[in-house]
């Protein structure tokens, strides 16, 4: 079972691409270290107030994969520097 999530977020406090990259680097490191998922920025790389990134997990059990994605999304929601706006989750 491969579960994939696309997440769009807005940054309200950052003032530059450098700020955005710093926040994303911390977020991506936490997600990959804590939950063993793959994360990559997919779109809006040149906009400092917006991002879209993908998260992928692989598991032999669909319930486990869904649980991992939900835990990862809770971590994203806990980052005060960004706001999650649009999220889509698909099974591949």
TrEMBL record:
**What would be one Pfam family of this protein?**
DUF503
Q: Where are the transmembrane segments?
A: none
> Which SUPFAM superfamilies does the annotation name?
Hypothetical protein TT1725
Q: List, alphabetically, the InterPro entries matched.
A: DUF503 (IPR007546), TT1725-like_sf (IPR036746)
Q: Which Gene3D superfamilies match?
A: TT1725-like
Q: Which PANTHER family match?
A: DUF503 DOMAIN-CONTAINING PROTEIN, HYPOTHETICAL CYTOSOLIC PROTEIN
Entry protein name: DUF503 domain-containing protein
Organism expressing this protein natively: Oceanobacillus luteolus
Q: What is the lineage of its organism?
A: Bacteria, Bacillati, Bacillota, Bacilli, Bacillales
């Amino acid at each position: 079972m491969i579960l994939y999530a696309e997440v769009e977020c807005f940054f309200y406090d950052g003032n530059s691409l450098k700020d955005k990259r710093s926040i994303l680097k911390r977020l991506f490191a936490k997600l990959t270290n804590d939950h063993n998922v793959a994360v990559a920025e997919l779109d809006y790389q040149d906009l400092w107030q917006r991002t879209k990134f993908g998260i992928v997990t692989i598991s032999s059990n669909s319930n486990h994969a869904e649980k991992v994605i939900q835990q990862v999304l809770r971590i994203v929601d806990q980052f005060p520097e960004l706001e999650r706006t649009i999220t889509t989750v698909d099974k591949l």
